[in-house]
Amino acid sequence: MNGRTTAILETSARRLFPDRNLDQVFAELLLERAHKNLIRYQAMARRFEAKYDQSFAVFRNSVVNSAPTSEIEQDYFDWELAVTGVEDMEQEIKHLSALG
Length: 100
Known about the structure:
single chain, mainly alpha, elongated
């Protein structure tokens, strides 16, 4: 970043988070994004659970032990992304929350 960009960001951070230092602002913004991503991944996983009326583990076993259609195969990959995303965001939230 150039000096002008940094100055603008610092001014905005101080205005929007007057009681926090820049490290705290950055951590809080990252934590907020991780929470939003977690909600998005959880909603995605719930949609697949409702669509197939089963957990991902059960669905995965049925897909692995069959010749799935292209739609089911795509749902498998998307659902796996959602499950992995939930795990990743929970870990990020844990790490960021530990910062205080």
